[in-house]
Amino acid sequence: DLSCLDVAGKIRSYDKERPIVVATELIDFDQAGDATFTKPTSIKPHCIALRSDFCNRFCEEAKFSLRAASATMKQRLCGQKDPYAFFSHNATCFRGSQEEGYPFLQEPFNVHMIGAALWTARPRIQNFKSREGKERTTLYLHKEDEEVYNKR
């Protein structure tokens, strides 16, 4: 089970110049509507907060982008219509994999990261199995949930 940062590190070891972009999902927000990274489950993949400076960099860049906006970060990222995603340039990955015990890397590397969020943590879905029980189909119970998910 490789993390996206493990894959990015392998790509970077072969190609020092190629831009690498990693997508992240922000899950937790504080009372003020800012992203919070206090728990391992606050972001997916969970190792981003431990292995990189993305969280600090993201908050700084997102707040700068929203400085004149009346909406909070959560309102912008989780908007049902026209949601935002924030792009963070050159986040530094400075720790190795979980399998290796998250050691500090001798050669940290940079990646760009996109931070986005779902409009709801629990879309209303229903799972159906085929008569044979082998295939599974997931359907959204409300059309707006499906539309919002498909836009992202």
How would you sum up this structure, described in words?
With 152 residues, the protein is an alpha+beta fold. It is 27% helix and 27% strand. It contains five helices and six strands, in the order H-E-E-H-H-H-E-E-E-E-H. The strands form two sheets. The protein has a four-stranded mixed sheet. The chain has a two-stranded antiparallel sheet with strand order 5-6. The protein is globular and about 50 Å long.
Biggest β-sheet: count, sense, barrel? 4 strands, mixed
How many H/I helical runs?
5
What Rg is obtained from the alpha carbons, in whole angstroms? Answer: 18 Å
Strand content: 25-35%
- Structural class of the helix and strand makeup? alpha+beta
Fraction in helix: 25-40%
- Overall, the morphology is globular
Mean pLDDT: 84
Low-confidence stretches: none
Strand order of the largest sheet: 2-1-4-3
What is the tally of beta strands? 6
> How far apart are the first and last residues' alpha carbons, in Å?
25 Å
The ordered H/E elements are HEEHHHEEEEH
Question: Key features?
Answer:
152 residues; alpha+beta; two-stranded antiparallel ribbon; 5 helices; 6 strands; 27% helix
Chain-wise SSE layout:
Blueprint: H1 4-14, E1 21-26, E2 43-44, H2 48-51, H3 54-65, H4 73-77, E3 86-95, E4 104-116, E5 125-129, E6 136-140, H5 143-151
Parallel strand pairs: 1-4
Antiparallel strand pairs: 1-2, 3-4, 5-6
